[in-house]
Amino acid sequence: MWIYICGDNERTYYLREMAHARGHRVTCPDDAQVIVLPLPKSEITPALKERLHRGQCLVCGMIEEEMRRNAQMAEWKLLCLYEDEKYQQANAMDSAEGAVYALMREAPFRIIGSKCLIIGGGRLACALHDILQGMQVNTCVAARNPHQREKIGENCLDIEDALAQIHTFDAVINTVPAQIIGGSALRNMRKGALLMDTASAPYGFNLDEAKQMRIHAWRENGIPGRYCPQTAAKRILDAIERGCCV
Description:
This protein is of the alpha/beta class. The chain has 2 domains: 2-83, 3-Layer(aba) Sandwich (Rossmann fold), CATH 3.40.50; 91-222, NAD(P)-binding Rossmann-like Domain (Rossmann fold, 3-Layer(aba) Sandwich), CATH 3.40.50.720. The chain contains 11 helices and 11 strands. The strands form 2 sheets. A 6-stranded parallel beta sheet has the order 8-7-6-9-10-11. A 5-stranded parallel beta sheet has the order 2-1-3-4-5, with helices on both faces. Helix 4 (85-106) crosses helix 5 (123-134). It is elongated, with a radius of gyration of 20 Å.
């Protein structure tokens, strides 16, 4: 395949190197069969749009409906990584490892034996639960969906019940892109507890409000590309080779 890769960071560096090593040609957008857009949120700049043509495969992450409509009109193929289950599962494990690293980096205490609340019942939340439990962290998952709670099993609560107990946790990790942790829950957090958000906008809580309350709070977005760019690049290239039949 002839591939054009947008962006200039560690992940795109490794992606170009791996694509070349696997026999693909890294080229300009005019000649490429496959265009890898920026991740996690993918957009097409006006300058790039002018160089695209019918039949090209656009590899993307999160996209707006308008972009889907534009792709249909321009006859571009879309390969949405976040609709590739194999990519999603691998990406969740990579993100969970990076999130645990970030938690350990910020914690002034040893996380082994600490108590951690994970908000969300999706792939990332499940991966975090497995890793942290393996590290002997007392982990609780909060999910609204009863099927997710049933799948996770013990140590899984309804979100409202978990938030009522938020004062008992040393660390809280949000994985849901919705402002679930409101002002009341923030005020009830234990002094010295950590609050990390791994979700995309609109995020899980108001970061400015949390900081005004002197909570040790921060956001960790785009984790694989920042903490394991080589692995992140491999995941993308594997998905391209699975999904772009050109």
